[in-house]
Specification:
Radius of gyration: 19 Å
CATH topology of the largest domain: Rna Polymerase Sigma Factor, Chain: A
Order of helices and strands: HHHHHHHH
Number of domains: 2
Number of strands: 0
Distance between the termini: 79 Å
CATH architecture of the largest domain: Orthogonal Bundle
Number of helices: 8
Length: 184
């Protein structure tokens, strides 16, 4: 295939930069929101990711490569933002939840509780959970995004789920004992 034909094929399968931003902005924001739990930081992350994409646009080879690149850069930038700021976000029940690309849960109290529990996870476990359950990626895809072994991703996911179960179980037991439920 001639160089001109390759360039034409690339352009036919890859949208313009503006189209790419429009198509993927909610996904990039969603990764930032679910990891950082701060709208301002998630917006900052999305802006940084798309500036970086603009700088690297010539190197994007296909629509699949674009999606992979955006998820990878978004994940790494989210971790970097937390490390730089060394701040854990605080939450209140009055906080309205942000829209995401996948709105599956309808119980807002449960959803808010789960989001707060995920926000307490260590960084590597948290990004693995966000990519697995928010973005629907398989462990193999996550390992490529995070430049780590599949077994490491599976370990992060298993430990995160164990930690979430333990926190949820402990909270439920405390609530039952404080309300007298389960007593005869």
């Amino acid at each position: 295939m001639a160089v001109g034909q390759m360039a034409a094929a690339r352009e036919a399968t890859l949208a313009t930069f503006a189209d790419a931003v429009e198509r993927h902005k909610s996904m990039v924001f969603s990764i930032g929101w679910h990891f950082l739990r701060d709208r301002g930081l998630a917006e900052e992350l999305a802006q940084d990711v798309f500036v970086e994409l603009y700088r690297n646009w010539a190197g994007i080879r296909s629509a699949d490569h674009l999606l992979f690149w955006l998820r990878k850069v978004s994940s790494h930038r989210a971790i970097d933002l937390v490390r730089k700021r060394k701040a854990r976000p605080e939450f209140s029940l009055e906080s309205a939840t942000e829209p995401t690309t996948l709105e599956k849960m309808h119980d807002t109290m449960l959803k808010s509780y789960l989001e707060r529990m995920v926000a307490t996870l260590p960084e590597k476990q948290r990004i693995a959970i966000v990519l697995r359950y928010q973005e629907g990626l398989e462990p193999e895809e996550i390992s490529k995004l995070l430049n780590t072994n599949v077994s490491t991703v599976k370990t992060h996911l298993a430990r995160a789920l164990d930690l979430l179960r333990a926190k949820t179980s402990g909270k439920l037991q405390r609530q039952r004992s404080s309300t007298g439920e389960g007593e005869i």
